[in-house]
Amino acid sequence: IEEMMIRSEKMSIAGQLAAGVAHEIRNPLTSIKGFLQLLQAGVNRKDVYYKIMIDEIEKMEKITSELLFISKPLTDQKKEEAVSQMIEDVVKLLKSQAKIKNISINYHKEDELYVYCDRSQIKQVLLNLIKNAIEAMEDSGEINVSVLLIDSYVQIDIRDEGPGIPEEVIHKLGEPFFTTKQSGTGLGIMITKQILERHDATLEILQNEEKGSTFRIRFPAIT
Ligand code: ADP
Ligand code: MG
């Protein structure tokens, strides 16, 4: 396995975010305004215009709700939490979405391992990464989640069978609004990295030998 670390972002996240938000919100607003002006002028094909406007509004809704998550005051509720429980909760949430694409999410609990964390934040991290894995895969395939205790850390791997990530793109993951998806927000990995940083945990992206990628989280082990 070839290892690739996510470049730690030195540019001000707040600055990038402000510029990104302005851009991401202004474009849909401009297009909605344009369509409203057409409707006001009394055009045909109203149904098409309505649909585009609703799509644009939904995109802004998605972005704003993810941004609200970021700006939520950070009242970390850190406790010793069982990793298996958090994974099982998230897998349950995503099962039906995976099933639609004929994807199975495999997780077999072995030794019970604990990490010191804010449970809801780490569930958000697991949700972001497993969701990305599902979205990366075409119809059918497997996502494997595993947990290991290695020396002084607890390692959680989320392994998919998607297309993998091109090397020239890998450093962009985690930049606000970087997305290759039609209806993506490009905020998931940024939020994930921020949460992990607050837990003294790390995120690595590995290219699988055969197919797909592995997102690897490492928490300091509880001593
Ligand atoms: P979004 O999911 O809204 O696009 P993310 O920050 O979660 O935003 O992900 C950013 C980008 O990283 C995705 O658009 C995709 O190109 C890439 N990516 C993330 N996870 C994977 C994965 N498991 N396999 C391939 N590409 C991925
Ligand atoms: Mg995502």
Automatic annotation (TrEMBL):
GO terms for molecular function: ATP binding. It catalyses: ATP + protein L-histidine = ADP + protein N-phospho-L-histidine. Residues 20-223 form the Histidine kinase domain. Its EC number is 2.7.13.3. Keywords: ATP-binding, Kinase, Nucleotide-binding, Phosphoprotein, Transferase, Two-component regulatory system. This is histidine kinase.
